[in-house]
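#onboarding

Welcome to the new folks! Below is a worked example of what a typical request in this channel looks like: someone posts a single protein sequence, and someone else replies with the predicted structure as tokens. Don't worry about understanding the tokens yet, we'll cover that in week two.

Example request:
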Amino acid sequence: MATEEELFASVDALLEEEPHLPPPPERARLREAAGITQARLAAAMKTSTQSVKNWENGRSEPKEPRLSAYRRLLDGWATKHPAHGAPATSVPAPATAPRPELPATPIGPAAPEAPDTETAAATAPVVAAVLAVVEPPTGRPAVEWRPATSKAAAPAADPRFPHGPLAVLDGDGCAYGVDGIVLDCPARTVPELVEWTLKESGLGAPKLHRNGKDSDPLIVLTAAAAVKLGLPERLEGHEQRRSLRLPADHPVVKQVAKAKWQLTQRGFGPWARIYRKAQAGQRQCVQFAVLSWDALDERSWPGVADMEPADIACVLGVYASRVITPRGSTAVSGLELMTALRPPTRAVQDRATGNWVSGHNPGSLGTEPMDPAPPEATAEHPVVVNSGWTGGFLNEEAYQWVRDVDLLSDEECTLPHAVGLDLNTAFLAAAARLVVGLSAPDHFHAPAFNPKIPGSWLVNLSHIELDPRLPSPFTPDGTRPSGPAWYQTHTVAYAQELGYNVHPLEAYLRRETGAYLDPWHDRLKTAYVETLADLGVTKDLDDRQFLAAMERHKQADPAMAAVLAAIKATVKGGVGKLRERPQGKSYKQGERWPALERPTWRPDIRAAVISKARVNMHRKLSNMAKMTGLFPLAVLSDCVVYPSPGESPLDFLPYAASGKPQPGGFRLGPTPGLAKLEGVQTMLWAVGLMEQGLNPARHIKGGDAVLDEGE
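Example response:
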């Protein structure tokens, strides 16, 4: 016979239990019967639509204070909309109601969790919001009850990776994945975490090309998770901060080695890769990102490092699905994306044996690094130092030009405003259908110029006279060339387009060519356009609507705005990585540096992208002058500043009588190569900067805004 004390203890335990919820299908039925959309319910619950979807498909459960509010709402709906055959009363939670092992933090802005003693007080505002906003209509027919579905919900695209490409681990052993998934991670050491990730987590992503490799799973460590695993919260000491990695004698590094795992040459830093040799064709590799070591740079991932783990997983998950699972900085990911979409090898059949072996994949850069021609290299490159090259170098860089104030007309100076236009991902637009060299360069003397052959040409363009109110298309600073110089094919071809004869003195050309960057361009363009659309900036908007949408797009969804920033950083960083310079004080000229061992160290491809982008910019500047009589005040990379009678680009951009934009000039829109408003200042402000020798395009946004100059 149980004592009174035991019975009271049992009852108290029941009272302290969290409120149960109906099965996920019943939650959806009740909402649909009440005529409420998931978006409206999410607004009432002060959470995201994705969180409501997760509650209704069984992937996650709400936490307090939302849990009590949600239960109260469902009870109210159950009274009005009972299931077929049930009396019109509150639907009790069945004893078999599924409860996930771990509750998921809702994705999106959420109220802070309240202590147990304050649960009722914290719940009240949410309940009030629910009751005030969600008013179920009457007379709606009930929807038939559906059987409970599996917690896994919709099947993953690849059954090998049911939980997505990555997870964010907190200090309590919760691994937050994409779509609100939360996994229980029991690992207490880094080697245990590697084993769990590869054997139990279900994380990873399928290859982007049939000849490529699957993406390794990514584990993002919060500061608390890093400390729990024995890592320092921050890299400490001069040596660690300088090298951005743990020393070889750190206990965690020793643990990894003792467990027969390996670190790559960059060691255990903000982005670490731990691996073993592949077995039976299966990769054994896990990528780590340590948030408190600044793995997610604020410029590329604005605000992401400070988000909750579930929100970080959401942001990185969207980036992984649209671009690639992050492998390091956005620049590194941009470069990795090139290789993932153009794998260096493919399976080919050996005619002698009939066996399938690894062979070169046509259109790729292959597996071996390739030395550039001397004028394409940098001054410290072994090709230059060892040969004693003194013939000059390519200077294909983005514009940094300011018009001479003496060339400003009185009419221009009386205009009230200076308006900055920024081209969307100008380097990405330039990469479209860009033919580049795939083989080693060959040297030619006095060749006939051919605009279809990618390479570097020594040619004298100093005789070409253009309007001084426009920058020269042949130099980054916009000044007229002073004599023979090395140019990439697009620059020389533009001189021909302008009507001038060109007679190259020398050239380094490549016989094998191809549009290597096409799949890279296509994937990033789609990612950019889709992410802008998620922020309310779509292709169907007219120019006024577009400007209004762009003005508020960053506030529409900070998470998606961060994804957009990362995509743009991936473009510029990826192009910059094609000519990565040596790092470290110990480097000496003439020595090879690690980046040179990559097939993707290709300064000639970088030069081709920037040359085409600069030529595209000049072509638009020239067309604008012809159509409107307007000349730019300054250009910085992909930003141009114009004098304007009004504060909007609509006040000076050329439009036809039909209202459509004139072709050839700057056009507003959300796709790469089209323009958006960068900023507005007074004309007096712009002239003041120009008189000081400063570039108005650098500061047109206002405040301390500084534009990225291309890398």
